[in-house]
Write a structure and sequence with these properties.
Layout: E1 4-9, E2 12-17, H1 21-24, E3 26-33, H2 37-50, E4 55-59, E5 69-79, E6 89-92, H3 98-108, H4 120-129, E7 132-137, E8 140-148, E9 151-157, H5 163-171, E10 178-184, H6 188-196, E11 200-210
């Protein structure tokens, strides 16, 4: 199922994330331009329900503050100077291992707030960019992730307690002086890990509210 970047009705415009519906029955609405947020939200919710969504979150308008907050999404940064080291090693994702990477990622992130399901098309894009990794120590898989430039785009530990080493290993793949990442504040274990390693929240990107 494809997302709808611009969904318009007589009440305004929004973007709809529908790609999660086949996997988690979850849809996301970002209100973009409306003078009638209640009516516009109803239009979006009805469309998402018709597509099979059972849970729907929305962002982008003060009207949504009357609904329960699911999570905020924030950006965190830290300088790579004096970052602790790890002996965990990075192994690049290859065409013959990309399906395993995707399966691990989607399994580990299935219950993380606002984590996106990644498709084969996402896997092909990752291979083209060359930023996907498995993280190993002594032949044992610790986790997976994506990292390039100054950004860590994905991180998932597959071994309990391995998140620290996975993060540090991914930082070693960065080419800039500062590492940045985004995280849902409802994902408390991840937030605590990043804070323990010196990452600081620099801005809030969005807030998501449960509307269904």
């Amino acid at each position: 199922m494809k997302d709808i970047p611009v969904f318009t009705t007589v009440h305004g415009a929004a973007s709809l994330v529908l790609r999660e519906i086949p996997h988690s029955h979850q849809a996301y609405i970002r209100l973009q331009a409306t003078q009638e947020p209640e009516a516009m939200l109803a239009d979006c919710v009805n469309f998402c329900r018709d597509c099979g969504a059972e849970r729907i979150s929305a962002s982008g308008h003060p009207y949504l503050e009357r609904f329960p907050l699911v999570t905020a999404v924030v950006e965190m940064k830290r300088s790579l100077e004096e970052l602790p080291q790890t002996d965990a090693l990075l192994l690049p994702v290859l065409p013959e291992t990309v399906e395993s990477w995707l399966e691990l990622y989607n399994t580990r992130m299935a219950h993380v707030p606002n984590a996106a399901f990644l498709s084969r098309a996402d896997g092909c894009a990752m291979l083209q960019k060359g930023d996907g990794y498995f993280v190993h120590r002594d032949g044992k898989l610790l986790g997976i992730g994506r990292a390039s430039g100054g950004t860590i785009d994905a991180l998932a530990a597959v071994e309990p307690g391995a998140g620290r080493d996975v993060l540090l290993a991914l930082c070693s793949a960065l080419s800039e002086d500062t590492a940045e990442l985004t995280v849902a504040t409802a994902n408390l274990p991840a937030v605590r890990l990043y804070e323990a390693l010196g990452f600081l929240t620099v801005r809030e990107i969005s807030r998501w509210y449960r509307v269904v």
